[in-house]
């Protein structure tokens, strides 16, 4: 009972609210991570997918970003057009999605899994991680 009195004392109210918000964010993050149906993989793990003939490499960056380099044999569909062009992607194939840093591709990986694509991977760190791993890029 003393803990509750302490937490809800007038001079501790801000601290208590901050603590509750942080706990809610942590729980939300854990739940979201458990519910996602795609897998985040690093650049080296992504190269092991390259042996799969049924692999689609999907670049969701803008056209101007591709000038800095792209992964060979990819398909380019900018983020804003992916939703309208989902029918171009075969649901029976494995899909590796990438962008510059991995956040836009994570969004699209989630979109794909919500639309019944099953084997979806997000390149964690995006093309930047690919370059840091000194893997080949096309220009």
TrEMBL record:
Ranges in a coiled coil: none
InterPro entries: GlpE_sulfurtransferase (IPR050229), Rhodanese-like_dom (IPR001763), Rhodanese-like_dom_sf (IPR036873)
Ranges where the Rhodanese domain occurs: 51-139
PROSITE patterns in UniProt: RHODANESE_3
Gene3D superfamilies for the chain: Rhodanese-like domain
SMART domains named among the record's database cross-references: RHOD
Transmembrane segments: 12-31
UniProt-recorded name of the protein: Sulfurtransferase
Organism from which the protein derives: Candidatus Thioglobus autotrophicus
């Amino acid at each position: 009972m003393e803990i509750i009195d302490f937490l809800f004392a007038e001079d501790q109210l801000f601290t208590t609210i901050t603590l509750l918000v942080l706990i809610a964010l942590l729980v939300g993050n854990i739940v979201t991570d458990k519910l996602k149906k795609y897998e985040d993989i690093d650049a080296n793990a992504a190269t092991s997918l390259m042996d799969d003939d049924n692999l689609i490499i999907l670049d969701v960056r803008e056209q101007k970003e591709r000038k800095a380099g792209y992964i060979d044999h990819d398909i380019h569909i900018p983020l804003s057009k992916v939703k309208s062009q989902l029918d171009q992607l075969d649901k029976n194939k494995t899909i590796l999605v990438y962008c510059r840093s991995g956040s836009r591709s994570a969004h699209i990986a989630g979109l794909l899994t919500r639309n019944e694509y099953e084997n979806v991977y997000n390149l964690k760190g995006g093309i930047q991680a690919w370059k840091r791993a000194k893997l080949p890029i096309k220009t």
